[in-house]
C-alpha cells in the first residue's frame, strides 16, 4: 500500500470517527441536560440510576472515540514520517491485511499481544 493510499484511508476513517465523536458528545450533552431538567436524585430515584448509567455509557463511548481519533492522528504522523506500516517492536512490515482491519496499529501480528 502506498503512503498516499494509507493517508487517504486514515483520513477517511478519521472523518468517520470525528463524526461519531461529535454525535456521542451531543448524546452526553443531551443526557446531562435531561438530568438537569429532571429533579432526580441518582441515589434514591429509580430513574436517577438509569440516567447515571446512561451518562457513564455515553461518556465511555466518547472516551473510546477520542482515543481512536488520537491513534489515527498518530498514524497519520507516522505516514508523514515514513514509518507507517512498520512494527514498533521488530521493525518488520505490518501485513496489509492487518492494516486493513486496524489501520492505526503500531505492531505486527507477532507482537500485537
TrEMBL record:
<keyword id="KW-0479">Metal-binding</keyword>
<keyword id="KW-0862">Zinc</keyword>
<dbReference type="Pfam" id="PF01258">
    <property type="entry name" value="zf-dskA_traR"/>
</dbReference>
<dbReference type="InterPro" id="IPR000962">
    <property type="entry name" value="Znf_DskA_TraR"/>
</dbReference>
<feature type="domain" description="Zinc finger DksA/TraR C4-type">
    <location>
        <begin position="82"/>
        <end position="109"/>
    </location>
</feature>
<protein>
    <submittedName>
        <fullName>TraR/DksA family transcriptional regulator</fullName>
    </submittedName>
</protein>
<feature type="zinc finger region" description="dksA C4-type">
    <location>
        <begin position="87"/>
        <end position="111"/>
    </location>
</feature>
<keyword id="KW-0863">Zinc-finger</keyword>
